[in-house]
Amino acid sequence: MSWATILAVTDGGTGSEAAMKTAIELGQRFGARVDFLHVENDARDLVPYVGEGMSATAMEQIMASVDSRNAARREVVDKTYKRHCSGAGLPEVDPGLPPKQGEFRVCMNRLTGREAEQVERFGRLSDVIVLPYPGAADGDGEATLDAALFGSGRPVLLAPADAGPGLGKTIAVAWDGSKEGACAVTAALPLLAKAEKVVAITAREGDEADPSALARYLAGHGIEAKTWAYTPGSESIADGLLEQADHANADMLVMGAYGHSRLRERILGGATQGVLERSKIPVLMMH
To answer: Record's superkingdom (predicted)?
Structure first.
């Protein structure tokens, strides 16, 4: 099992470069094609929200502001792409050509519209989607993440702004026995198979999660996993998972996303939301 196509969103925000570097590293590791996606805002999308009762002069000012913002983001993405891809001698391919099995290539897809919608569309025919963390995105990072997690049916790998090379040598799996957790583990099998060390981390909260059962499943795929159960204290589940992953020297975390309602998690807090806000290592999630 491997990955053949990787979609990486490059929006010109502070996390855009990290997403690009992470996607390139994964593409080289798996001999996969990396499709970078840059979506510019269409000022006409704003008309239904602000158009009624607005003067022509005000509308022109809004259009000009959107165009200026697009140009600034485009410049950042172009410089980053040149630094890491075209100017670095990486093999490039036209976006319209199909990928070739086992062949690492990069390409840039430039579109105008709503980023979340394009991520859904492109993501459904990609093996993994690489995104910057929502807080490091230029635009509505949460909407893009939601589209990737809930609309694409694909795993999402979130790259922190200071992500370094060599990710995935030691991978921690947050195992709670849930459907979302099982989906994330299955989606991460290509990464787990290449890891030097895999640790299944489970919080002792009930009888549903059995880390040894996960270890047996992974053994069937030729993956040796150590089990790591801990008793939560007063800290949140997210903080506990991140602390245990740090103790295991993990440089990546695999977990299910939004086992509870995302609205509930964003209002009341939850494991997914807490990890999104505080993780300093790449996290592969799937809903």
So the answer is: Bacteria
DSSP letter assigned to residue 171? E
List pLDDT tens digits, range 51-79: 556 677 777 787 888 889 999 999 999 99
Helix, coil or strand: residue 132: strand
Q: Between vectors from CA 279 to CA 20 and to CA 24, what angle results, nearest 5°?
A: 15
Pure H helices in 167-208: 179-187, 189-194
Under CATH, which number does the domain 5-54+71-159 receive?
Answer: 3.40.50.620
What tokens were used for 269?
Answer: 């807090």
What is the rounded radius of gyration, in angstroms, for the C-alpha atoms of the chain? 20
Host H or E run for residue 212: helix 211-219
Q: In this model, does residue 269 exceed pLDDT 80?
A: no
With a CB cutoff of 8 Å and minimum separation 6, the contacts of 19 are 8, 9, 10, 130, 131, 132, 159
Residues of the chain with CATH 3.40.50.620: 5-54+71-159, 170-286
Return the minimum-mean-pLDDT range out of 65-79, 84-98, 118-132, 256-270: 256-270
Name beta bridge partners: 9: 37
Cα–Cα dist 63/50, whole Å: 11
Residues 6+ apart with CB under 8 A from 184: 155, 173, 254, 255, 256, 257, 284, 285, 286
Q: What is the H or E stretch that residue 159 is in?
A: strand 156-159
Topology of domain 170-286 in CATH is: Rossmann fold (3.40.50)
